[in-house]
Each structure stands twice: as structure tokens, then as C-alpha cells.
TrEMBL record:
GO terms for molecular function: purine-nucleoside phosphorylase activity. Residues 24-269 form the Nucleoside phosphorylase domain. GO terms for cellular component: cytoplasm. This is Purine nucleoside phosphorylase. NCBIfam families: PNPH, PNPH-PUNA-XAPA, PRK08202.1. Keywords: Glycosyltransferase, Transferase. Belongs to the PNP/MTAP phosphorylase family. The keyword Transferase applies. It is an enzyme of class 2 (transferase). The purine nucleoside phosphorylases catalyze the phosphorolytic breakdown of the N-glycosidic bond in the beta-(deoxy)ribonucleoside molecules, with the formation of the corresponding free purine bases and pentose-1-phosphate. Its EC number is 2.4.2.1. It comes from Mucilaginibacter hurinus. The lineage of its organism: Bacteria, Pseudomonadati, Bacteroidota, Sphingobacteriia, Sphingobacteriales. One of its GO terms (biological process) is nucleoside metabolic process. It holds the Pfam family PNP_UDP_1.
């Protein structure tokens, strides 16, 4: 893996010159609009980058965007990889390894997820303060490379407390409804049954989704600070569960995306 990371990083650096990103951003389903706020300097298609997995989802464009956001040099992943696409955990988290090798100091992650907490409504935002991993594999399984991180990384505080506090203050100052809560990662791609929603709520989940946690595990393995935020695109109330379509999820995500963009833009500027 280390050789692959080095080869991929060398290729990217040959295309971006002396550009050195300070922050890395992963944009989730329906949340690619943040790139419109970036003063873009370079764009690279995943398909042109050696060893880089390519998103199989039509609504994930699959680009690395290099530019400036709020005066900070950033690299944004417009489109992420998911375990349900058939990739291994090591493959879907490989881009995070590369972003760290490119020099980022903090990773900012976004996703679309379903609300489990009855106090949360679709269209709201939720900052992730902790997570529960229900996915069947772990990206750290296998031989550990001490150059990347320790065999048994600590996960007592996977999400930076100070960034959570700053983000909540930004949301409050801009009259944005923004909660904090626990994110449960499942495999997907199907949505959950009534019984599954009930179970996930009972074990402590406030929102459920199909991404993010593997990327966070790998980031923390490399001692890379993380901030993560969810757009709540549907509601998983077992007593009143209604069918939901991808079009509805994308519509809610698009409507909430400007609020998420504002928080991320101001947070990144304040943290650098």
C-alpha cells in the first residue's frame, strides 16, 4: 500500500505543481455544490489517477478539486467511494491516505444520512460527535504499516471537539438548525427496515448512513484530525415509516447544501 500511495501522490504532485493543500474535504451524496465556492486551480479525474478507485455512482462526479476556499488551500473529493460498490475497505479509504500524503492537516467529511432521532427533521444538519460502526469489515484489517500509523489506534475522540464547538457557533450565528449526534454506519445500498431503524435508535444512533466511518478510522490511524457533518435527507421513524426515493434524497440534500457549505467554509477559514 505504501508504494501505491507514493506512486499516486507523485503523479498528483506532477499535475498540481507547488500547490500544497492545507485541508481535505470529502463531499457526500448530493453535496458536490461546495466546489462552486472554491477558487479552482486544478481538477483531476479519478479515472486518470494511478491506483485511484473510480466512483460507480452517476451522482458522484469523481474529481479531485484543488483550489482556495475562504483563503485556505484545499483539495476536495467531489464524489466518494462506498463499500457497497464492491470495493474493499482499503480501496475506498485509499484517497484519504493520499490526501494525507499531499499534506493536508485536517479532514472535513460530509454525507447524506437518515434521521433516527425524533427531534431531528429532514433538511436539518447534524455534526457527528461519535459513531457506531456496523459495517462488516475494517479498513485496518491485515498487516499494519507503522509508517502509516499504529496497530491499535485510539478512537476515544474520533471527531475534534473544538471544531464541533466552532461549527455549532457558526450555525447558531447564521440561524441554521444544526444538531450534534451519533452516526451509525451500515453497509447498504438498501435503506433500512422498520425493525432495523428501531434497533439502530435503541443502540444509540441519531442518524444512519453508508459511508464516512471507514474514512474516519483511516484518518485517525494517521493522526489526522477530523470534522464530519451530515445532511439529514429522510426520517426513519418505525411507527410512521414512508417509502423514500433517491430523487427525494438528492432534492433534500441540494436544498440543505448551501447551509452546510456556509458552515464548512467559515470553519475551514477559522481553523487555518
Amino acid at each position: 500500500m505504501l508504494e501505491n500511495i507514493q506512486r499516486t501522490t507523485a503523479y498528483i504532485k506532477s499535475r498540481i505543481g507547488d500547490f500544497e493543500p492545507e485541508a481535505g474535504i470529502i463531499l457526500g451524496t448530493g453535496l458536490g455544490g461546495l466546489v462552486n465556492e472554491i477558487e479552482v486551480e486544478k481538477q483531476l479525474m479519478y479515472s486518470n489517477i494511478p491506483d485511484f478507485p473510480v466512483s460507480t455512482l452517476e451522482f458522484h462526479s469523481g474529481k479531485l478539486i484543488f483550489g482556495t476556499l475562504g483563503g485556505v488551500k484545499v483539495v476536495a473529493m467531489q464524489g466518494r467511494l462506498h463499500y457497497y460498490e464492491g470495493y474493499s475497505m482499503q480501496q475506498i479509504t485509499f484517497p484519504v491516505r493520499v490526501l494525507k500524503a499531499l499534506g493536508i492537516k485536517t479532514l472535513y467529511v460530509s454525507n447524506a444520512s437518515g434521521a433516527l432521532n425524533p427531534a431531528f427533521k429532514k433538511g436539518d444538519l447534524m455534526i457527528i460527535e461519535d459513531h457506531i460502526n456496523m459495517q462488516p469489515q475494517n479498513p485496518l484489517t491485515g498487516r499494519n504499516n507503522e509508517e502509516l500509523g499504529p496497530r491499535f489506534p485510539d478512537m476515544s475522540q474520533p471527531y475534534r471537539i473544538d471544531l464541533i464547538s466552532k461549527a455549532l457557533n457558526i450555525a447558531s450565528a447564521n440561524n441554521i438548525i444544526c444538531h450534534k449526534g451519533v452516526y451509525v454506519a451500515v453497509t447498504g445500498p438498501n435503506l433500512e427496515t422498520r425493525a432495523e431503524y428501531r434497533y439502530l435508535r435503541i443502540i444509540g444512533g441519531d442518524a444512519v448512513g453508508m459511508s464516512t466511518v471507514p474514512e474516519v478510522i483511516v484518518a485517525r490511524h494517521m493522526d489526522l484530525p477530523v470534522f464530519a457533518i451530515s445532511v439529514l435527507t429522510d426520517e426513519g421513524w418505525p411507527e410512521d415509516l414512508k417509502p423514500v426515493s433517491l430523487d427525494e434524497i438528492l432534492e433534500v440534500a441540494a436544498a440543505a447544501e448551501p447551509k452546510m457549505t456556509l458552515i464548512l467554509k467559515e470553519l475551514i477559514a477559522a481553523n487555518n
